[in-house]
């Protein structure tokens, strides 16, 4: 069937305009009628030796038989082909209008028409499952967006209400500690109090960054340099725990379009988490390589305690942490930064053996948007 598709409004359902065509019954009967007619003519020529009366009777019987055969063929085609096709057209129209609960009744036939019906029912079931999954993902994203919007308002209020008094407290502690004698035991208490004030300020900063992240400032620069910068800083933190950070670049990597400050923040967060997860000396490996899909993969692997399987689905949720002194915002912010770059972040972990984080970034945002 020759059809053309037209849609006046982009995104609107496509209307199918069916062109004029020869009726299927006529197309089915014409070849049969032609064969019967040729057979009849041949029969007339062969029967020319018969008497005129006998020849007329035989021709009448042959013509009647041909007519009966054509009628029988039409009836069989009407039942076996036309009805399923009409039902299929009706069900397709219902699917186009959004009804995905339809099925065809001839799917149990043991022939090609039955195969068509089974394929149609399977296709509609797959469409229904896909629509339900898309709807679920949409609701999840909407809920997540609403959550972060509320978090942004909360973070702004907290920053205003806490930071100013906190700055005053830190100033008072600094002044008070200067007047204390060097041998006073209160000095250590003052230092601890100032460190707690710094910790509170860090939590507020992470909360603001998570709730209202700054848009990336993209630049086409060497991703190896960005990763090296994070590794150099992390090595200063790891030396006291006798942890070695190995850095390996496996491929000749092209410049990557990214925000070096934000990606450095992501990698540094992963490295510091890796250091904190290791209770004894060991090795943290950072590797860079290029994937086949025009992305760069940065892997951070440690030999730490690992993450329990029941905790893995939640580690990117805001405020979720398995560390007593953690804020639960670092990994959440890291994922948002990576997603803002058009990339992905994955985690795999075996309790008692270690954890591996993999960050994949597109080499070019133009290529990522085109895909």
How would you explain this protein's 3D organization?
α3 (112-178) runs antiparallel to α4. The protein contains eight helices and nine strands. It has helices at 24-46, 52-96, 112-178, 186-211, 223-238, 260-277, 330-340, 365-370, and strands at residues 3-6, 15-18, 219-221, 243-249, 256-258, 282-290, 295-301, 344-350, 354-362. It has 371 residues and is an alpha+beta fold. The strands form three sheets. A five-stranded mixed sheet has the order 4-6-7-9-8. Strands 1-2 form a two-stranded antiparallel sheet. The chain has three domains: 3-99, no CATH class; 133-211, Signal transduction histidine kinase, dimerisation/phosphotransfer (DHp) domain (Helix Hairpins, Orthogonal Bundle); 219-370, Heat Shock Protein 90 (2-Layer Sandwich). The protein starts with a strand and ends with a helix. Helix content is 57%, strand content 14%.
- Report the portion of residues in β strands: 5-15%
According to CATH, the fold-level topology of the largest domain is: Heat Shock Protein 90
Number of helical regions: 8
**CATH superfamily assignment of the largest domain?**
Histidine kinase-like ATPase, C-terminal domain
Shape: elongated
Shape-level CATH architecture of the largest domain: 2-Layer Sandwich
SSE pattern, N- to C-terminal:
EEHHHHEHEEHEEHEEH
Structural class: alpha+beta
């Amino acid at each position: 069937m020759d059809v053309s598709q037209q849609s006046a409004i982009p995104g609107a359902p496509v209307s199918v305009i069916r062109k004029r065509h020869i009726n299927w019954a006529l197309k089915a009967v014409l070849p049969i009628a032609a064969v019967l007619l040729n057979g009849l003519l041949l029969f007339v020529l062969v029967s020319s030796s018969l008497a005129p009366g006998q020849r007329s009777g035989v021709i009448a019987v042959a013509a009647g038989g041909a007519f009966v055969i054509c009628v029988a063929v039409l009836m069989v085609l009407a039942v076996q082909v036309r009805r399923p096709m009409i039902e299929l057209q009706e069900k397709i129209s219902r699917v186009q209008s959004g009804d995905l609960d339809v099925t065809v009744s001839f799917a149990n036939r043991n022939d090609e028409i039955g195969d068509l019906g089974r394929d149609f029912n399977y296709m509609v079931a797959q469409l229904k499952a896909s629509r339900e999954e898309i709807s679920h993902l949409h609701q999840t994203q909407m809920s997540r967006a609403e959550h972060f919007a509320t978090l942004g308002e909360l973070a702004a209020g907290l920053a205003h209400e806490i930071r100013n008094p906190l700055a005053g407290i830190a100033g008072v502690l600094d002044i008070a500690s200067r007047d204390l004698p060097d041998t006073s035991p209160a000095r250590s208490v003052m230092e601890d109090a100032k460190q707690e004030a710094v910790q509170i300020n860090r939590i507020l900063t992470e909360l603001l960054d998570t709730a209202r992240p700054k848009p990336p400032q993209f630049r086409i620069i060497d991703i190896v340099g960005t990763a090296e910068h994070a590794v150099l800083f992390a090595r200063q933190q790891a030396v006291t725990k006798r942890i070695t950070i190995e850095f390996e670049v496996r491929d000749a990597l092209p410049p990557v379009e990214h925000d070096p400050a934000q990606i450095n923040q992501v990698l540094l967060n992963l490295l510091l988490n890796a250091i904190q997860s290791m209770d004894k000396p060991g090795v943290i490996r950072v590797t860079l390589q290029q994937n086949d899909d025009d992305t760069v993969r940065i892997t951070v692997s440690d030999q730490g305690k690992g993450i329990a399987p029941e905790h893995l689905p939640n580690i990117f949720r805001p405020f979720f942490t398995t560390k007593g002194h953690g804020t639960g915002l670092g990994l959440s912010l890291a994922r948002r930064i990576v997603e803002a770059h058009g990339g992905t972040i994955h985690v795999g972990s075996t309790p008692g053996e270690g954890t591996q984080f993999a960050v994949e970034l597109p080499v070019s945002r133009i290529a990522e948007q085109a895909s």
